[in-house]
Structure to design on (93 residues):
């Protein structure tokens, strides 16, 4: 039996029913992404903040993917990439 919400646009999710590969999306919340980015450095933190502060588009998946780069690259390399991305964005704005 599943719970039903009668509130408009309310979502009821039973985490036990989520496939393991999809659980990552729910475990890596915006706050998680921000905390991880702060550990990398100020440039990374700024990029993640900008992504997550967009009120029009949900960019949590993009933020999660950036933070997932830590599985392959060092913090220093990710910080340098975020610095370059910010510089490039300023030059094209």
């Amino acid at each position: 039996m599943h719970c039903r919400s009668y509130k408009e646009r309310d979502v009821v999710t039973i985490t036990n029913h989520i496939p393991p590969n999809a659980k990552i999306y729910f475990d890596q919340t915006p706050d998680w992404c921000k905390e991880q980015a702060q550990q990398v450095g100020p440039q990374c933190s700024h990029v993640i903040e900008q992504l997550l502060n967009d009120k029009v588009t949900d960019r949590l998946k993009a933020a999660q993917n950036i933070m997932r780069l830590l599985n392959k690259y060092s913090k220093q390399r990710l910080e340098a990439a975020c610095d370059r991305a910010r510089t490039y964005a300023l030059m094209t704005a």
Summary: The chain has one domain: 15-92.
